[in-house]
Amino acid sequence: MAKGKVAQPKVAAPKGGAAKKKKDWKADKQHLFSKDPRDYRIGRDILPSKRNLSRYVKWPRYVRIQRQRAILKKRLKVPPSIHQFSKTLDKNQASNLFRLMGRYRPESSAEKKARLVATAAAESKSQEVAKGSKPKHVKFGLNHITELIESKKAKLVVIAHDVDPIELVVWLPALCRKMDVPYCIVKGKARLGALVYKKTCTALAITEVAKEDVHKLDQLVSNYKLMYSESGDRKRWGGGIMGIKTNHIIKKREKERQREASKSALSGL
Prior knowledge:
The protein is of the alpha+beta class and 269 residues long. The protein has helices spanning 25-28, 61-75, 80-83, 91-101, 109-124, 142-150, 172-178, 189-195, 214-229, 244-268, and strands at 77-78, 139-140, 156-160, 183-186, 203-206, 238-239.
């Protein structure tokens, strides 16, 4: 026996001749196990890795219309009279404005009912009803605000940026500038409506405030005049923002145009 080799023990052969082969149960019943391989091509199976599946979702029709409208507003050229509504107050400016207007909300339906009940009870007892000063609150209603602007009683006009159709308020900034009434544009007609207990509101107007709030109102008015009435941005056109593919095509065409111009200049020499 060679050095380093170990003798393997002999295995006794089973009785009854050669060993029987073990049956493969799955091979015998292949029709029960059909292969279903995954296909990761476009429109087939989704890759198992973590990914954003929102692009695979078929969104509702109203969501698709909203997104298409947003893209169209970027692509199409928007005239200045409509583009000015995209310039709204930022978060800090809007919070200061709404904090001031929140002190001058009109009475709610519950408060009005309580006041009328108290007045009726006093009149039934033949008592004199105490008549206080005229309440100071923000004015709403498009026709009412128009009258206040034309009579120059409005000290500040607040316009919503998302009024639909826009033709309802598109003329309001021009009227404010003509009558020298300060105005501003804020996000959310629903936010304006919440101030006056309505679902939505196109515009609000402040006519008078208490003595302690006069300084705050004057400060806001001076800021808004610089932003809107005296700013040159209101004459600027909007839109015309193209996608990345279109920008690459435009750059490619411009390079080809420059190359042809240089060739023609060399040939002319």
